[in-house]
Amino acid sequence: MHPLKVGKLPSALLGDLIQSITCNDKRVIIGPKIGEDATVIDFGDKYLIVKTDPVTFATQEIGWHTVQVNANDIATMGGVPKWFLVSILLPEGKTDEGMVRKIFSDINRAAEELSITLCGGHTEITYGLSRPIVTGQMLGEVDKNKLVNNANAKLGDEILLTKSIALEGMAVLAREKESELLRRYDSAFIKKVQNFLYDPGISIVKEALIANQTARVSAMHDPTEGGLSTGLWELAKVANTGVTVYAERIPCLWEARTLCADFKLDPMGVVASGALLIVVDPSMSESVKRDIENGGIDCSVIGKLTKIDEGLKIVKNGKKQDLPLFEVDEIASIFCL
Fold it and tell me: How do residues 209-220 score in pLDDT, each as one tens digit?
């Protein structure tokens, strides 16, 4: 058997593993499923939403990063992130007190920004690691009538995208490869890309809450590892539909396009935290777009859900073609050589 590649498990293998799970607890409203960002548990008058996610590529501000990506997945279900637990694994021989204090400081800063309580976890120095790995577990809650279940997305719904693609991937690249990039770009360019974490920002909590207040949202999905293409595939998988998107409507900042071209990366396959996929009935798409933009966040209508037998398509220069799919995230080629 061949070793598996870095990144998410192959979709077929992951699907088999998920199907092997038996969940007989009737309080589990949404369990493990490709295309759903978190699990949902009935807690009486509200639903509890629970998510766990690690940060593995980034090392700078890794604690802040971990809070954000876990909070995002609570928000995609329509919920408000509330409580955070974290496991911090630190490399043997490379960890000092300053590193540990910085990670904790960054976690606390992110939690304060989002009014989240850090309420537990575990920290240890571990052999065999070359860099810190931080895994978060976020809990949130949602009113039962506001839960977003991606399986409710339907044929004809329109797909909106906030901000821009490849934000997280390019911010991580500019931070982790700064010395290399300084040989080819000026410092102002690099600092701007590094700041993509904050501006436009990788948190999607604000726009998710706006969308869910404006309309009965059919689905929301956070396109992370594998980029927008993988996020669209996951969305179509759980909705049991096809997808058609239009290349000219998909926003990508010119700095991100420049770096992707330089490193021979397809921005459609670059980890895309900060962009939020929102699926709504066509009658509500302009209202959702307007309200999100009034909140100071860019939003574009990029396509629609189609019949499942139409597959996953992207229209470029008026020609429909297969949406590119990525077995691993594009930036894995840079960090895993």
Answer: 999 999 999 999
